[in-house]
Amino acid sequence: MKRLMNIIRHGALSTLDEQIQDSTQEDESATQIRSEYEAKVAARKIFQNVAKPGSKYIYLEDIERFLPEDEALKTMSLFEGASESRRISKKALKSWVVNAFRERRALAITLNDTKTAVSRLHRMVDVLVGIIIVVIWLLILEIASSKVLVFISSQLLLVAFVFGNTCKTVFEAIIFLFVMHPFDVGDRCEIDGVQMVVEEMNILTTVFLRYDNQKVIIPNSVLATKAIHNYHRSPDMGDAVEFCIHVKTPAEKIGLMKQRIMSYIEHKSDHWYPDPMIIFKELEELNRVRIAIWLTHRMNHQDMGERFTRRALLIEEMVKIFNDLDMEYRLYPININVCSVPPMASDRLPPKLNKSAELDDT
């Protein structure tokens, strides 16, 4: 367990297909994780080596065989639901290793994109500095006369007039990418009301991946003028669940419902913070009351799938509570007045009516 944590924290976990040059470790290939499948295989091997034979969980005493007590407790806190139950399931271990691999892969891609952007910026600066050095060299050697300098300056003015807007765009993109730097590769962002994941960062453009895997390319100069909501850099975020009950629902049922919902949320302490707010939000059409539950995740909304999974579990529990308490939603009766009946288009009667008429005749 400690070796796996050191591999992930200190960079021995490879997320790209490249090999480390001049490596002297003979078993380094055995510690390389290049895909989520290999991460799951590594988690399975770790579980088999740490857990007792035939056990479905890793307990605190299993980890204490490898780590001191204080470090073992810190290790338990890294896994979902392990702090309260004092045990680590195979699913929690696998999820932790896969998430660590994803984060390191995103970090590696970010560093690679930043390195590429810096190299391109370095080429641009080299060209500009080269032109300045050539001009200074001509002046020092007195090769360039005043007429030549006037000609060069006029050409520079022409170039500035033609490519001035491009130079401005490039400068704004560089400021946005290296100074503002509002996101990294892999961050989930919301721009103009659309949630997208950053896939690639260049000097002039940024490539996003939309929820339906459609690539969206936006110039950095345009992004600099927009509000960017970054989920990955946000702290633990809140959520809300709203539902309606009938206005005549007894207060005892409402109190019991709130108590059971609070108990479920406090029991899922690895998913939610305790003490959520359950309020009567508003009264609608005098026959139903809207109730809102405001609660806070123990995560941000970077992993949107995990967010909706936890929310779905809460809603399933709420439906179970409503069924157990026999809480139902009723509408007011509606009066229907039939003013006229259209004439019958056929004289044929249904078979049942025909049989009843024959019986009457007999």
TrEMBL record:
InterPro entries, per database record: LSM_dom_sf, MscS-like_plants/fungi, MscS_beta-dom_sf, MscS_channel_2nd
Entry GO terms, CC: plasma membrane
Pfam family, one: MS_channel_2nd
Domain of life (superkingdom): Eukaryota
Lineage: Eukaryota, Viridiplantae, Streptophyta, Embryophyta, Tracheophyta
Transmembrane segments: 125-144, 156-179
Keywords: Ion channel, Ion transport, Membrane, Transmembrane, Transmembrane helix, Transport
GO biological process, alphabetically ordered: detection of mechanical stimulus; monoatomic anion transport
The protein, known as: Mechanosensitive ion channel protein 4
